[in-house]
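Human:
Take a look at this sequence-structure pair and walk me through the tokens.
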Amino acid sequence: MFKKLKVGPNLYTVRRVAAIENDSCNPDGQWSFDTKVGGLLQIKNDIENDVVEAEVVTHEVLHALFYHFNIEQDNEEHLVQTLAHGLTMVMKDNPRYLAYLTEKLK
């Protein structure tokens, strides 16, 4: 697992945790940002498999993007969950697509 993630000008620390300790809608992950200390992505240690973990990380990154671009949606959680599931599905089912992006974004 990577330890840092940059979203726009904001640097997020990525941490593995035993449990998500707040009222997060996602029991496997949590994002937060504070202008004084920066961002934090917490990912639960015991996620059932790698595909679910990838979706959880994508889900939390999407929340960070919503924050960065000041996107306010009444149904943000549903939208983020749907996009995370869809993006994870496309990347898993099309490994050449992910390799293409990696090559083009060097």
Q: What stands out?
A: The two ends are 20 Å apart (CA to CA).
